[in-house]
Write a structure and sequence with these properties.
This protein is mostly beta strands and about 140 residues long. It has no helices and 13 strands.
Length: about 140
C-alpha cells in the first residue's frame, strides 16, 4: 500500500482513500465530491483528519494513510498505514456500542461518547498497516 498522492481519491469499488503520512508540511484538499457527499482532508506526518459534509469523520495522531474507507449504517471498514503506531478517532453515532476488529481479531467492544467519537489505538505490524472494521 502506498500513500495517497492526491490526498483524497475515489476508488473503483466505491470507497475513498485519503491521507499522506509521509508529508513534512501540512496539505489539505477541500470540496472533494464522492457519492453525493463533500469531503475535506488535512494531512501530514503528525496528523491526518477527514471531514464529511462538514462533520468530523476521522483523525489520527500521528498522520496515517487510509485506503478503501467505507461506512454504512452498521459498519466502518478501512486499511490504515503509518510510520508508527497511531491513535485513531472516528466520528460515529453518539452513545452507541461498537465491536472493533483489527486485522480480523476483535479488540473488544467500545462505546462512543456523547459527541459520537470512538477512540482506539492501532499497533502496526511489520507491514506497517492494519485492517480496521468497526461494527454496530
Amino acid at each position: 500500500m502506498a500513500v495517497v498522492e492526491e490526498l483524497l481519491r475515489s476508488e473503483a469499488d466505491g470507497t475513498i482513500s485519503f491521507g499522506n503520512h509521509m508529508l513534512e508540511g501540512k496539505a489539505k484538499l477541500e470540496d472533494f465530491e464522492h457519492c453525493g457527499d463533500l469531503y475535506k482532508v488535512k494531512t501530514y506526518k503528525t496528523m491526518t483528519k477527514l471531514e464529511k459534509n462538514g462533520m468530523f469523520a476521522y483523525e489520527s495522531v500521528p498522520g496515517t494513510s487510509v485506503s478503501h474507507f467505507s461506512e454504512t449504517a452498521d459498519e466502518v471498514k478501512f486499511t490504515v498505514e503509518g510510520g508508527e503506531d497511531a491513535q485513531l478517532t472516528l466520528g460515529l453515532n453518539e452513545d452507541t456500542e461498537y465491536e472493533v476488529f483489527v486485522d480480523g481479531k476483535s479488540i473488544g467492544k467500545m462505546k462512543t461518547n456523547l459527541g459520537g467519537k470512538l477512540n482506539l489505538s492501532v499497533e502496526f505490524s511489520e507491514t506497517g498497516k492494519a485492517d480496521v472494521t468497526i461494527k454496530k
